[in-house]
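Service request form, structural biology core

Requester: graduate student, group of Dr. S.
Request type: structure prediction, single chain
Budget code: on file
Notes: please return the result as structure tokens.

Sequence provided:
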Amino acid sequence: MGSCAYGGCVRFSRSRLSVLVFCLCSLVSLSSAARLSVSRQKLEVQKHLDRLNKPAVKSIESPDGDTIDCVHMSHQPAFDHPYLKDHKIQMRPGYHPEGRVFDDNKVSTESKERTNPITQSWHVNGKCPEGTIPIRRTKKDDVLRASSVKRYGKKKHRAIPQPRSADPDLVNESGHQHAIAYVEGDKYYGAKATLNVWEPKIQQPNEFSLSQLWILGGSFGQDLNSIEAGWQVSPDLYGDNNTRLFTYWTSDAYQATGCYNLLCSGFIQINSEIAMGASISPVSGYRNSQYDISILVWKDPKEGHWWMQFGNDYVLGYWPSFLFSYLADSASMIEWGGEVVNSEPDGQHTSTQMGSGRFPEEGFGKSSYFRNVQVVDASNNLKAPKGIGTFTEQSNCYDVLTGNNGDWGHYFYYGGPGRNENCQ
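Core staff response, request fulfilled:
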């Protein structure tokens, strides 16, 4: 007697023919269900793409394969948010942080060279008209690489470096590893730094490597508020290994709120020249030219929104204060540094690089750095941070080394190769 392991669509009888019909019917019903679920997924993905990709006034093909859509400023994804239906776009911050402004072309005397300007790859093929903003177009493949349509453009939970965690294993558990400098114990209204730009090697497509600053409010529980900005290499998110400018925000520890770049409603962009999530080039080379970008995030004391500036010339836009609970007032911690995902391929530590992939001791031209690290105080002044601490989960894999001098103010070198003889 034959038998069949699936639930069927005819009453089971003892004849072989019935068993055969029973099996065939089962397979047909299974394949119909599979087809239905594929078409449902296609529909879900298409609806998501229609939501994200707003009608463009003009589209620019970038040499790296991206399409940049120039979208009318008032049609950007931010305005899908119910609270922003009648929002009047603020075209400039009420106040800009005062204080010692470092010349971002000036490098420490040890380098014997100026750092060079950085552009985005798509600029070679055109620019967006005034009144529009550049948005990297999301493709079907981008969404399909995510674990689900809902999780597309979001970080995993517990991705935050928690320097004083009572249980270091809790931090390692999430697979995220860090090498950071941080300050806490005061009210902070912003942060600034100049970040060295590299293109670290990523071992697995589901891993990433980034360098950023974090503006944090609340506890490290379910209520954490975070604003983040920097550069990243993330094959899962972008489908390649290019170094890209990015931002992130969350008001509930990465659970339901927030996203990368403009992949959900939240950040309001006003700048027509810089695209979030677009490649930045050139990048630094080992014992070669060094390139860096400067990022400033600060709270406008007048309106209460959190603004972001890229370099000296580009005020990109703002996160409206209503998005946050704790950050509606001020930040309680600022962090600067690197983060990677260690998925432990083959049961060993990943060889995904952080920063340049070299340890901090190697110094300028070899190791990656943050320089002119500053915070914004209650009087909206940029100032040197007091009492900088450092944190890394496994210093044999990725490490951090701080310093201070006249040219670079507070700085640190950070990063590492990941797996090596001391990091298994």
